Amino acid sequence: MSLFQLQPFNGISQLAVGNPFQQKKYGRRTFLCRPQAVASRTQRIMESVSVSGEVGGAGGAYSYEALKRLDQLWSNICSAQEVVQEPQQVVSTVPNLFRSSNLANKAQGSYDVLVCGGTLGIFIATALCAKGLRVAIVERNALKGREQEWNISRKELMELVEVGVLEEEDIDRATAAKFNPNRCGFERKGDIWVEDILNLGISPVKLIEIVKKRFISLGGVIFEGCSVAGIDVYEDAAVLKLSEDEILLSRLIIDAMGNFSPVVKQIRCGKKPDGICLVVGTCARGFEKNSNSDVIYSSSSVKKVGNSKAQYFWEAFPAGSGPLDRTTYMFTYVEPQPGSPKLEELLEQYWDLMPEYQGVSLDDLEILRVIYGIFPTYRESPLPSAFNRVLQFGDASGIQSPVSFGGFGSLTRHLGRLSSGIYEAMNGDYLESQDLSLLNPYMPNLSASWLFQRAMSAKEHTNVPEDFINELLYTNFNCMQRLGDPVLRPFLQDVVQFGPLSKTLGLVMLTNPQILPSIFKQVGVPVLLDWSKHFLMLGYYTFLSTFADPVVRPFLNTLPSKTSFRWRRHLEAWKYGAGLDYKL
């Protein structure tokens, strides 16, 4: 594309070279040469890639236009205002009975549960359908998976089998790629190799199609191409209003609309996220060496990007679309503030850094897809229910780890607990907000993970060495490896446990005590004090789950129904909040 474009302009000849008002005549006609914006390398690459239709869920869009929209959203989040914008009031409470209202005969359908958002909502919907509930899904787009694969371990997928969402042979049908071993490495400090961690590439297209067929076979109903216009919560029902002035009736509405759910925005009052994981990457063809994966890898120290700093990390996996196809992600953790890097700025650096990281030339690669996303996290997570008959699920609930991007792994881990709890709540009609909040309880292992995100975020004025983050991570991973699989493997799958964490911290202080002052400078004393509270609660929950649970559990069936329901949720909170649901 030319930098200058000649246009006739009112008989005055101007040539824009540096100064847009310089003039020059060409024959008898006069022209104004107006400067035209030069397309970035990211724009040129993305516009040269064939893009299919967008689908719902994170990572479901690949076009340059969608990138610019997301960057604009990200810029709004990074504004100096504490509240990004006044949220739309999506949920309203109506202090009347629905059956006595003038809308009682206008509902298009009546269900036990309505799930808003189908990309990940299809899993909880199918689990509840398998228990005999009448369930419907409302999805803004066509309900199908994205092209880009999800990386997960077989152990996590078996959770879907246990709750009746999949058959075991479905895992093989949905698996596009398998790879081992898996590397963790930090800027030439040494590599740590593990087996069977995030070593499956699952095709979301195939997986969601399999689950969708099972959901329909169980009697589930899907409303595709329907947007949520509002939710009215009556004393005896919840009414979902669609954009086409249609309404659906249910006893419970599950919000599975992801990180940017309008219901979540209303509950959080438009509050700015506490942290963000920015992710860019590609799926490309042309990698000769393509048999193993990187779970986390850092090839450099902190880098300057735009007006801020960033510590880049990498993930890389073979893709299932061909033997030479490989997915590489570059991600970083930042606080949303003015001057934070945009996704397009990260992609501009990605084109330079990825070939060096993978030992290839960009000219030798065929870019199949460009991938990008922003993943907000809040310290006040999981999100308790703010309304009767409305429950957040998946990314909308904030149940995912603050150091992960994408909530599929946490979804599989919690699906059994949540489906059983929801089913029990439906049977007992325990659908008030204080009862539903027990399904998304405080979990100290999740809150303790905040320290890790802070430690992995580059700061402007901390006076720590440029390689501090890599040094800290390598020290921790090396100590976990020395302590063995019971310590390393849960951590790599975003499960924090009191015993393994205590052992790791103790070994770090013994083997590399000189790193401690830099930790205080990097994360700050207030953050460390706050983390200490959650660390102590992690130990307390471990004690309760190990010693109090066996004492309490035998008496549950002797208690009144509602008391039993609440105690079961407390026992689950102890177990999952301590990470003791994870078994090797």
TrEMBL record:
SUPFAM superfamilies, A to Z: FAD/NAD(P)-binding domain
InterPro entries noted in UniProt: FAD/NAD-bd_sf
Name by which UniProt lists this protein: Lycopene beta-cyclase
Lineage: Eukaryota, Viridiplantae, Streptophyta, Embryophyta, Tracheophyta
